């Protein structure tokens, strides 16, 4: 929702931050991979230091690369289909690593699994729609998109590791937050599915025999 509604205002800010990176010669794909490496390092370090607050702060820094790679691509003129594909795949691996880490430290595996599946279904609903009909990638202002999920997880871990830890409620806050996260991801997946269904219904009505029309159950 944040990205969809405020993209024109947010992009110039990211481009100002990304300009030194682009001028240093980094490619967008290198920025994407750097973000993945930082997330994996953050996840691997969590069992060693055990601080959710540190985990959340590093996670916030790592996820900044999610926006910076696109800004570097625009500034350097290196936008490509392969880069867009890489960014989307890396996003999913990042979410998988983070939810696995939070499931492990909280023991709330059902909440973590439901949250991860809701996030993946939210992404897949739009990706699958793009297979069937041309879509505008920026006009999907749904409730709990990737930006919101990032801010939620970073805020949850930082607050659980500081404020709630001071009251001895760190684990309780983390588990509750993961269940809220799971609920919001599935609400958004259903919201996006509803939007996609309406778009596809209009496309079928306009061109029922077009090359994209089909009645199979291909899950690709």
Properties at a glance:
220 residues, mainly alpha, 8 helices, 0% strand
What is the gist of this entry?
The chain has 220 residues and is an all-alpha fold. It has helices at residues 2-23, 28-49, 52-76, 81-106, 109-132, 146-161, 163-166, 170-206.
Describe what this molecule looks like in 3D.
The chain is an all-alpha fold and 220 residues long. It has helices spanning 2-23, 28-49, 52-76, 81-106, 109-132, 146-161, 163-166, 170-206. α3 (52-76) packs antiparallel against α6. The chain starts with a helix and ends in a 14-residue tail after the last helix.
Return the string of H and E elements. HHHHHHHH
Compute the separation of the termini in Å.
26 Å
| Sheet with most strands | none
How many strand elements? 0
Write the layout of secondary structure elements.
Layout: H1 2-23, H2 28-49, H3 52-76, H4 81-106, H5 109-132, H6 146-161, H7 163-166, H8 170-206
């Amino acid at each position: 929702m944040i990205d969809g509604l405020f993209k024109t205002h947010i992009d110039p800010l990211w481009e100002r931050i990304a300009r030194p990176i682009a001028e240093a010669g980094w490619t967008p794909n290198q920025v994407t991979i750097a973000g993945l490496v930082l997330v994996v390092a953050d996840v691997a370090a969590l069992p060693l230091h055990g601080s959710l607050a540190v985990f959340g702060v590093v996670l916030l820094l790592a996820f900044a690369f999610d926006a910076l790679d696109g800004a570097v691509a625009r500034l350097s003129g290196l936008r490509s289909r392969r880069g867009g594909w890489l960014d989307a795949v890396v996003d999913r691996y990042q979410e998988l690593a983070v939810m696995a880490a939070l499931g492990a430290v909280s023991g709330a595996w059902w909440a973590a699994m439901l949250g991860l599946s809701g996030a993946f279904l939210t992404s897949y609903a739009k990706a699958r729609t793009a297979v069937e009909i041309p879509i505008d990638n920026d006009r999907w202002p749904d409730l709990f998109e990737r930006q919101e999920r990032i801010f939620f997880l970073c805020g949850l871990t930082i607050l659980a590791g500081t404020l709630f830890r001071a009251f001895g409620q760190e684990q309780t806050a983390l588990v509750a937050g993961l269940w809220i996260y799971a609920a919001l991801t599935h609400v958004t997946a259903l919201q996006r599915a509803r939007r996609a269904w309406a778009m596809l219904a209009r496309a079928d009505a306009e061109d029922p025999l077009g090359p994209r029309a089909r009645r199979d159950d291909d899950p690709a």
